[in-house]
């Protein structure tokens, strides 16, 4: 059999194959990609620190800011030590929360909001993205695939929380809100850090605004401090739970999922992870969301 070759080195058979392939593709009966049917009355709420992300998001952010010379490593260490003492005491009283909050806010008072947002995006991509728990991320995607909306609920500043939510393809975030005047942080909060009962109130408020049926909603957290939020919805789930939350989950029949690779991680959940989570509640009140005051 004689094979004809054209000037470009392609055989007649090659040319016929291209034509056949193009004709076949053109004739194919292609269905439109399936669309997710929105489930507008059900939603999921995820805590961030040690639930969606390993460690405390605000701690990773603070380290990133220190690397950008926003404050010194000594300042960061001093703040971390202060927070560690606070967390290790096991007492989250009003005085302790106030001290932690004031120390955190001091870092951003007078800073430009736009600059910090730009840094937050960079720091997420550089440091935080690799710390997302794949198991928790899969749970969030499960809700999205079911047509439900998914929000992060965290003491972390709402600007940072929104960046994390958007990077993960989630609906949005509820976070701590800071006062902003003329595009700069004043060093004061709008209300209090979104912590403990405040998270439950945020979920209730959002549910009323969005027409959610709380009995059809699900909440996820690692901390016993979030029992109010977990109890507000129809289904509470403990993710990488601390000892106290594990006990509550057992008593209430809540599902428990632990994505930590080693049991020793549970021990680190006290001192070491606290050193990260330390800043979460404290610095939480730090760079929070934009609330313009005329």
Radius of gyration, in angstroms, nearest whole number:
24 Å
- Helix and strand sequence: HEHHHHHEHEEHEHEHEHHE
Backbone shape: globular
Assembly annotation: single chain
Category by helix and strand content:
alpha/beta
What separation lies between the terminal Cα atoms? 86 Å
Give start-end ranges of low-pLDDT stretches: 86-94, 263-294
Overall pLDDT score: 78
Give the amount of beta strand, in percent: 15-25%
Detailed description of the structure:
Helix 10 links the parallel strand 6 (235-239) and strand 7 (255-257). This protein is an alpha/beta fold and 294 residues long. The protein is 48% helix and 15% strand. Strands 1, 2, 3, 4, 5, 6, 7 and 8 form an eight-stranded mixed sheet that branches.
Write the layout of secondary structure elements.
Elements: H1 12-27, E1 43-46, H2 57-67, H3 73-88, H4 94-106, H5 113-128, H6 134-145, E2 149-157, H7 158-167, E3 172-181, E4 184-189, H8 197-210, E5 218-221, H9 227-232, E6 235-239, H10 243-252, E7 255-257, H11 264-268, H12 271-282, E8 289-292
Parallel strand pairs: 1-2, 1-5, 2-3, 3-8, 5-6, 6-7
Antiparallel strand pairs: 3-4
Helix pairs in contact: 2-5, 2-12, 3-4, 3-12, 5-7
Condensed summary:
The chain has helices at residues 12-27, 57-67, 73-88, 94-106, 113-128, 134-145, 158-167, 197-210, 227-232, 243-252, 264-268, 271-282; strands at residues 43-46, 149-157, 172-181, 184-189, 218-221, 235-239, 255-257, 289-292. The protein is α/β, with parallel strands linked by helices and 294 residues long.
């Amino acid at each position: 059999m004689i094979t004809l070759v054209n000037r470009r080195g392609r055989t007649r058979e090659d040319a016929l194959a291209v034509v056949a392939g193009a004709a076949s593709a053109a004739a194919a009966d292609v269905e439109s990609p399936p669309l997710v049917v929105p489930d507008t009355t059900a939603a999921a709420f995820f805590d961030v620190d040690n639930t969606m992300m390993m460690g405390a998001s605000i701690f990773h952010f603070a380290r990133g800011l220190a690397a950008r010379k926003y404050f010194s490593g000594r300042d960061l260490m001093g703040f971390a030590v202060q927070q560690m003492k606070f967390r290790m005491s096991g007492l989250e009283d009003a005085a302790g929360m106030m001290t932690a909050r004031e120390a955190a806010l001091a870092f951003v008072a007078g800073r430009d909001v736009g600059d910090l947002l730009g840094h937050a995006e960079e720091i997420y991509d550089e440091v935080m993205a690799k710390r997302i728990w794949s198991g928790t991320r899969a749970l969030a995607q499960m809700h999205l695939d079911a047509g439900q909306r998914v929000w992060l609920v965290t003491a972390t500043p709402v600007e940072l929380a929104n960046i994390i939510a958007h990077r993960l393809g989630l609906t949005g975030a509820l976070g701590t809100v800071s006062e902003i005047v003329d595009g700069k942080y004043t060093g004061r909060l709008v209300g209090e850090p979104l912590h403990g009962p405040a998270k439950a109130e945020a979920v209730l408020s959002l549910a009323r605004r969005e027409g959610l049926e709380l009995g059809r909603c699900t909440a996820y957290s690692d901390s016993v401090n979030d029992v109010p939020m977990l109890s507000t919805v129809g289904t509470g789930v403990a993710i990488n739970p601390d000892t106290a939350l594990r006990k509550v989950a057992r008593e209430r029949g809540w599902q428990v999922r632990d994505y930590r690779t080693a049991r020793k991680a549970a021990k680190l959940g006290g001192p070491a992870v606290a050193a990260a989570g330390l800043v979460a509640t404290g610095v939480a009140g730090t760079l929070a969301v934009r609330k313009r005051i005329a």
